[in-house]
Amino acid sequence: MFAEIEQYFRTERLPHIWCPGCTNGIIVKSIVEAIQKAGLDQDKTVIVSGIGCSSRATGYLNFNTLHTTHGRALAFASGVKLANPELNVFVITGDGDCTSIGGNHFIHSARRNMDLNVILFNNNIYGMTGGQYSPMSPSGAKATTAPYGNIERPFDICNLAIAAGATYVARGNSFNTRQLTDIIYNGIANKGFSFVEAIASCPVYYGRKNKLGNAADMLKWQRDNCITKEAADRLPLEKKQGKVVTGILHHEPAPEYTTEYQKIIDKFQGGEES
Amino acid sequence: MNVTSINARLMQGNQACAEGAIYAGARFYAGYPITPSTEIAEVLAERLPQVGGKFIQMEDEIASMAAIVGASLTGAKSMTATSGPGFSLKQENLGYAVLSEVPCVVVDVQRLGPSTGGPTAPSQGDIMQARWGTHGDHPIIAISPSSVQECFELTVKAFNLSERFRIPVLMMLDEVIGHMRERIIIPAPGELEIVDRKKPKVAPSQYVPYEPQDDSLVPPMANFGEGYRYHVTGLLHDDTGFPSNSPAVMGEHQDRLHEKIRRGLHEIIMVEEVQTEDADVLLVAFGCMARSAARAVKEARAKGQKVGMLRLITIWPFPEEALRQLAEKVKAIIVPEMNLGQVVDVVKSAVEGKVPVYGICQADGEIIPPERILEKIEEVL
Ligand SMILES: Cc1ncc(C[n+]2csc(CCOP(=O)(O)OP(=O)(O)O)c2C)c(N)n1
Ligand code: SF4
Ligand SMILES: [Mg+2]
């Protein structure tokens, strides 16, 4: 454990349940580094998660943590944030959790623009249930429930977030942790719905089913196939084919929900209660 | 009580329920519109910000239920309201609130089901769903008001019980009670007891979030943001709140959830007895049907028939003890209910064959009139 971030972990709860080579832990480290860099009060920070391997992260984090039901983390988090807007609220979710069962909550949360920081761990698979395809499994990918290859088309979840009204959208991966920490940190600074897709690797199910090699090979894939938005903007179209664009993809501030609600309450100052 | 024209008002049941929530200290509501419950949301959308509270219309009932649990964890007394189709969607996170012991109040203004059923037709068809709607063995508290006054007062009680026992409390209204207008006397501030959840007395480093501190078995609850950095999960867990798959730990957790309610039965069970002292025939009724039943008692008595009523105010846990005592004395029991026999079977199992039990069961959106009950009384006497 790294001494400078140890305070953010429930060290007595370790070791974690994740498989060797899983990159969930790397992403969690970036989250706490971003929290530290932003100087957030640990007692005023709540981390909410859904159900899945990635969502188990809340159990290891030394904050008020809320491990909810499958797909519903954003709805629980909205209740926490609206009831007490002083709290910094983070949501940890998986690709299945957020984009499948939680898809409706996702688009509406993005639209509402409550000040939530959402980190989606995208390993392109349902890890916890043993390797079924998710709405973010690429076409053609193999999964236990797509034994002949996936005939569905995946979401570009960042584009969906932008279309649904998210005011901050970024993508990173578990190889380039400096970039990942930075984009989470910048999301914290955005007062509104901030969404970060973190590309993760699940060597045990997604990797094995799709013959992507070992954990190190999967990280190398991230290194070799992701390009930053800045680089992508300079490249001709044919050189960008098949690449995954990372960095801050969208930032367009808009009125934040709890702030707007407070304005309504303020009109009634002098009522029964402030 | 000092009745003045200021605190006596004409009010609808749903509105009284919403005002009762504010009186109880509710400061958070999340919901999704559905007939015949919508007025509760409309009243609270207007009223909550006036008292510094929050209202939000969520994308569906699953999200509404989730949001009130999240809000309650920050210390806000929270509520949602719905009807059958939405009540089905609440069940997932209702179970979460039971397991993780988060106080909240869920109102179900019952309409005729199943499915979209009869949106404006009254029914008492969600009584078994209230008991067993979410999966797994779990305790629950469900309350059924029979008047507009009770919509107010029992909503206050529902919040009190949810805070006291850290459990979701279901307010089982029906379309008749929810939409009926009656005179109601609004209790003065301080007139009704208000209960708040127990807070931890120890420092954050000493806090074991699910460790009971007394015989009530209800652990003190810290609010998120107060420095008590604990974990809340829908997984079975030990006293620290962290999940375990040890059969001993999981079994103990389940047992405590049930035992805390068993130990509190004397605070939870509410019934009203009407002319039961010398009754030969006992009517067992609740919600809007208790009004027909009360009328039937009156008319039967006028004819010289010894009829009484046990009105169930608390439906779950079922008031078995009160019923058993009366079953010793009466010759027959009649259960009029606007469903196809949800409570009558529970009554039968509670009286264990000591007296014959008859149901008057109807699920067509019509209220069972006193005349039908009177006919049945003639038949069984
Ligand atoms: C209502 C409900 N349906 C299904 C499940 C089973 N389930 C648990 S985790 C999971 C998928 C998780 O996938 P993802 O969100 O991608 O997380 P990962 O495990 O990959 O991190 C499913 C389907 C559940 N717990 N609840
Ligand atoms: S199954 Fe996959 S996602 Fe889950 S812990 Fe193992 S490697 Fe990680
Ligand atoms: Mg996944």
From TrEMBL, chain A:
<dbReference type="InterPro" id="IPR051457">
    <property type="entry name" value="2-oxoacid:Fd_oxidoreductase"/>
</dbReference>
<dbReference type="InterPro" id="IPR029061">
    <property type="entry name" value="THDP-binding"/>
</dbReference>
<feature type="domain" description="Thiamine pyrophosphate enzyme TPP-binding">
    <location>
        <begin position="51"/>
        <end position="197"/>
    </location>
</feature>
<dbReference type="Pfam" id="PF02775">
    <property type="entry name" value="TPP_enzyme_C"/>
</dbReference>
<keyword id="KW-0560">Oxidoreductase</keyword>
<protein>
    <submittedName>
        <fullName>2-oxoacid:ferredoxin oxidoreductase subunit beta</fullName>
    </submittedName>
</protein>
<dbReference type="InterPro" id="IPR011766">
    <property type="entry name" value="TPP_enzyme_TPP-bd"/>
</dbReference>
